[in-house]
Design a protein that fits this description.
The chain is α/β, with parallel strands linked by helices. It folds into 4 domains: 3-153, Orthogonal Bundle (DNA polymerase, domain 1), CATH 1.10.150; 159-255, Beta Polymerase, domain 2 (2-Layer Sandwich); 259-333, Beta Polymerase, domain 3, CATH 3.30.210.10; 343-568, TIM Barrel. It is built from 22 helices and 17 strands. A 7-stranded parallel β-sheet has the order 11-12-13-14-15-16-17, with helices on one face. A 5-stranded mixed β-sheet has the order 2-4-7-6-5, with helices on both faces. A 3-stranded antiparallel β-sheet has the order 8-9-10. Strand 8 (287-289) and strand 9 (292-295) form a beta hairpin. Helix 12 packs across helix 14 and helix 19 packs parallel to helix 20 (493-503). It is globular. Residues 179-184 have low confidence and may be disordered.
Length: 575
C-alpha cells in the first residue's frame, strides 16, 4: 500500500473522530501522521520491509499508529478505519473535499439539516438553507455553492505529478526486473514513461509507458502480472491497459527498438506540439508518425528522438518544452535552445522550516542533512507569529534563533545558514514586523496566509504593496494554491510579476508537490519580463529536500536556465 493511500486513511480517521467530537489530541495525532506520511520521500512499505522496527522511529508515529501502518501494509485494511466509515452515510466524507469545508461544517450541516452528501449540500445552498445556520450567512452560503461547482467541474480526479511518478517508477522497475536481473534478461531494450508524465505536467490522468522489445507478447504478459493491478482492461499483442489498486490507469505500448525514438516523441506529445512538427515535416516532403520519419516509403529516422527532430532540421526539444508555447518558432529561427536548469545546478534552499515553528526537526539536524547532501547553504524561514501557525516566532524568539544560527555557522563552516523568516502579509499589504526589525534578517520572505477570497483588484494591490517594502526579497508561493484542493486566489499575476521586476523581488517556485507554485505559465512569462526566481522546498523535514526536483520540473516547463534562478549561486550571504 502506497504512502498516499495510508495518509488518506489516517486523515479520514482524524476527520471522523473530529466529527464525532472525540478528544482533540487523538484526532490531531492522525492529522499530523497523515501529513508526515504524505511527505515521506520513501514508501512506508519499503521502509517496513527493509527494517520492520524502523516505522516507530519516524517522527510523529507512536506505537498505536505504527500498529495501524503495519496492519495496512500487511492486510491492505485498517479495522478501525472501516468501522468508523460504517458509522457515516455514503458520500458523507466527500463533502470534505469541497474548498472551505471541514469536519465542523459537515457536522453542522448534518445535525441541523441532515445533509449527507455533496448533492444534498448543493441543493440546500441553492435553496438558501445554509445562510441561517450558526456561523454562516449569505456570503458563506454563496462561497460554498461556488466551491461545489468548482469541485464538480474541476480535475480532482487527476493525480498529482509526484503520485503518478511514484506509481510509474515502481511499475517500470518491476518491468525491468526479471528474477533479480536488472536488465530483464534481454526482454526489454528500452522503457520510458511518456505522455503528460514525461512532460512533467502538474496533474496526470493516466500513466503512459512505452517499451521497446523483440518479444512484445512476453512484455505484455509480464505487464499484466504486476501484483498491484486490480483490473486488466485490455490485453492485445502490443498494447495493454490496466487499473492499479490505487485507481490509476496505466497504458503500455510495445514497439521495435528501431522506431522507439519516433514512438517516444509521438506519445510524449503534447498533441499541439506534434501537430506543428508533423506540419513542418510535411512541408519538407517528409512524414512523421509513431512509426518513424519517412521520405516516401523509406524509413529515414526513428531510433532516437534527436534523429526525429534532426530530420526536420530542428535541435532537440526537451520534453518539458513541448507545449506549443513558442518552442517551434524558436527551433525554426535557428537560435540556440535554452539549456534548461537541472537539479545539480542548485546550491541551496532558501525556504526551510524547523521545529522552532511547525517543522519536525531541530535546526542543526536540518542543516547537517543539507550539508551532507552537498548543498552550500540553507535559509531557515520559520513562520512569524501572527498567522496562527503553531509556535510561530515573534521578534524575541527570532533573535533567540539567530543566536543558535550564529553558533552553528561557526561549527558547520563553510556551510552557511541564512537568517530568514516566512513573514505574513497583512490584509492591507503591510508586513507584520516593522522595517527596523525586517532589515536585520538576511532574507525576508513575504507570504499570504489569510484572506484568500479578496477581490482580484484588492488582492493584487495587497501583494504589490508588500513587494514595495524595501526589505522584502522573496514572494513565497505566489498564487497560494494547493493543487486539486485549493485554487489560486484571484490575482493579476501579470501585474505581480511586473511589480516583482520593478522592485527587484524574487519570485519563489515552491517545490512542494502539493503546490508547484508559481505555475509554469507564469514562470515563462516572468522570464520574458525579466523576473528572477528561487526554487525552494518550503520543507518541514530534511527529507523533503527531494521536493526540489518538482520545482525544477516547473522551472524547466517555464524555460528557465540556471542563470534565472538565484539559488544556483555558489554562495549567498544576504539578499
Amino acid at each position: 500500500m502506497d504512502n498516499q493511500t495510508i495518509a488518506k486513511i489516517f486523515e479520514e480517521i482524524g476527520n471522523i473522530l473530529e466529527i464525532q467530537g472525540d478528544n482533540p489530541f487523538r484526532f490531531n495525532s492522525y492529522y499530523r501522521a497523515a501529513q508526515i506520511i504524505a511527505n515521506l520521500p520513501q514508501e512506508l512499505e519499503t521502509i517496513y520491509r527493509t527494517n520492520p522496527k524502523s516505522i516507530i522511529k519516524i517522527p510523529g508515529i507512536g506505537k498505536g499508529l505504527e500498529e495501524k501502518i503495519i496492519e495496512l501494509i500487511e492486510t491492505g485494511k485498517c479495522r478501525e478505519h472501516e468501522a468508523l466509515v460504517k458509522t457515516l452515510p455514503d458520500g458523507f466524507l466527500e463533502m470534505l473535499n469541497i474548498r472551505g469545508i471541514g469536519p465542523k461544517k459537515v457536522k453542522l450541516f448534518y445535525t441541523q439539516l441532515a445533509i449527507k452528501n455533496i448533492g444534498e449540500l448543493k441543493l440546500a445552498a441553492e435553496k438558501h438553507l445554509l445562510r441561517d445556520l450558526p456561523g454562516m450567512g449569505e456570503k458563506s452560503e454563496s462561497e460554498i455553492l461556488s466551491a461545489i461547482n468548482e469541485y464538480v467541474s474541476s480535475s480532482h480526479n487527476r493525480r498529482l505529478l509526484f503520485e503518478a511518478m511514484n506509481y510509474a517508477e515502481e511499475y517500470i522497475a518491476y518491468m525491468k526486473n526479471n528474477d533479480g536481473a536488472a536488465d530483464g534478461c534481454g526482454l526489454i531494450d528500452a522503457i520510458e514513461p511518456c505522455g503528460s508524465l514525461r512532460r512533467r505536467v502538474e496533474t496526470i490522468g493516466d500513466i503512459d509507458i512505452l517499451c521497446a522489445s523483440k518479444n512484445p507478447k512476453k512484455v505484455i504478459e509480464k505487464f499484466t502480472e504486476y501484483p498491484k493491478i486490480s483490473k486488466v482492461l485490455n490485453k492485445g499483442e502490443t498494447k495493454s491497459s490496466v487499473i492499479l489498486k490505487s485507481g490509476m490507469q496505466v497504458d503500455l505500448r510495445v514497439v521495435d527498438k528501431k522506431i522507439f525514438g519516433a514512438a517516444l516523441q509521438y506519445f510524449t506529445g503534447s498533441k499541439e506540439h506534434n501537430v506543428r512538427v508533423r506540419d513542418i515535416a510535411k512541408r519538407r516532403g517528409l512524414k512523421i508518425s509513431e512509426y518513424g520519419v519517412f521520405k516516401g516509403k523509406k524509413l529515414i529516422a526513428g531510433k532516437t528522438e534527436k534523429e526525429v527532430y534532426a530530420a526536420i532540421k530542428f535541435p532537440y526539444i526537451e520534453p518539458e518544452m513541448r507545449e506549443n508555447r513558442g518552442e517551434i518558432e524558436l527551433a525554426e529561427s535557428g537560435r540556440k535552445m535554452p539549456r534548461l536548469i537541472e537539479f545539480k545546478d542548485l546550491c541551496g534552499d532558501l525556504h526551510v522550516h524547523t521545529n522552532w515553528s511547525d517543522g519536525s526537526e531541530d535546526l542543526e539536524t536540518v542543516a547537517l542533512a543539507y550539508k551532507n547532501a552537498g548543498f552550500n547553504y540553507i535559509s531557515i524561514s520559520d513562520h512569524s507569529h501572527t498567522v496562527g501557525i503553531t509556535h510561530g516566532l515573534d521578534e524575541k524568539r527570532f533573535r533567540e534563533q539567530w543566536k543558535e544560527i550564529d553558533a552553528l555557522n561557526k561549527k558547520l563552516a563553510p556551510f552557511r545558514i541564512l537568517k530568514s523568516g516566512e513573514i505574513d502579509i497583512k490584509k492591507n499589504g503591510e508586513i507584520v514586523f516593522p522595517d527596523e526589525f525586517l532589515k536585520q534578517f538576511d532574507i525576508v520572505i513575504a507570504a499570504v496566509h489569510t484572506s484568500f477570497n479578496l477581490p482580484e483588484e484588492e488582492q493584487t494591490a495587497r501583494i504589490i504593496k508588500a513587494l514595495k517594502n524595501p526589505y522584502v526579497k522573496i514572494l513565497a508561493h505566489p498564487t497560494g494554491r494547493l493543487i486539486n484542493k485549493r485554487p489560486a486566489y484571484k490575482v493579476n499575476m501579470e501585474a505581480i510579476i511586473k511589480a516583482a521586476v520593478d522592485t527587484n523581488t524574487i519570485l519563489e517556485i515552491n517545490s512542494s508537490p502539493f503546490r508547484m507554485d508559481l505555475q509554469d505559465i507564469y514562470v515563462k512569462r516572468g522570464k520574458e519580463l525579466g523576473a528572477k526566481f528561487t526554487i525552494n522546498t518550503d520543507g518541514h523535514h530534511s527529507s523533503q529536500m527531494e521536493y526540489l526536483k518538482y520545482g525544477i520540473f516547473v522551472a524547466r516547463r517555464g524555460w528557465l536556465e540556471a542563470k534565472d534562478v538565484i539559488n544556483t549561486q555558489p554562495a549567498i550571504m544576504k539578499l
